[in-house]
Write a structure and sequence with these properties.
single chain, Ribosomal Protein L22, Chain A, Ribosomal_uL22_bac/org-type, alpha+beta, 158 residues, rRNA binding, ribosomal protein, ribonucleoprotein, three-stranded antiparallel β-sheet
């Protein structure tokens, strides 16, 4: 469900794998990651194995790594069918700027985007999806827009 808040399970095993600066745009990588979020790990591997998108093979390898990390933390886990993909997200990585020559001596800027992909697996489906994230209200770049700012209160009263 959208906006569902889950209570973190303290005794659940959570294993992560992070892939940084992969040369896929975040928008295209999110299409692949959205397919497997919330699935069983073995089903997610099957979906990623046959995904036609280019990022599918990289996310497949990353999910295998997260499963191996979970097996390393808890040797009682026999295979991927005991694990769930509880967190799968794509963040924007660094952007390389390049120039392409255009008509009349102009230069056209090309942005080559990269992304950071994070996958977390757990032995419990009810594990919180926001395991290490802070609340979205505290994540603001502009201090004028934060809820506790006096400028925000002043603008709201007008």
């Amino acid at each position: 469900m959208i906006g569902e808040q889950l209570v973190p399970n303290q005794d659940a095993l959570v294993a992560r794998a992070v892939l940084r600066d992969i040369r896929h745009t975040p928008q295209k990588a999110r299409r692949v990651v959205d397919l497997v979020r919330g699935m069983r790990a073995d089903e997610a591997l099957n979906v990623l194995k046959f995904a036609p998108q280019a990022a599918g093979s990289d996310v497949y390898t990353l999910l295998n790594s997260a499963i191996a990390n979970a097996k390393q933390q808890n040797p009682a886990i026999r295979d991927a069918s005991e694990l769930w993909v509880v967190e799968a997200l794509v963040d924007e990585g660094r952007t390389m700027k390049r120039f392409r020559p255009r008509a009349q001596g102009r230069g056209f800027r090309i942005l080559k985007r990269s992304s950071h992909i994070t996958v977390a697996v757990s032995d419990s489906k009810a594990t919180s999806k926001s395991l290490s994230r802070i609340s979205t209200k505290a994540q603001t770049r502009n201090p004028k827009r934060s809820d506790k700012s006096p400028l925000a209160e002043k603008g709201a009263s007008n």
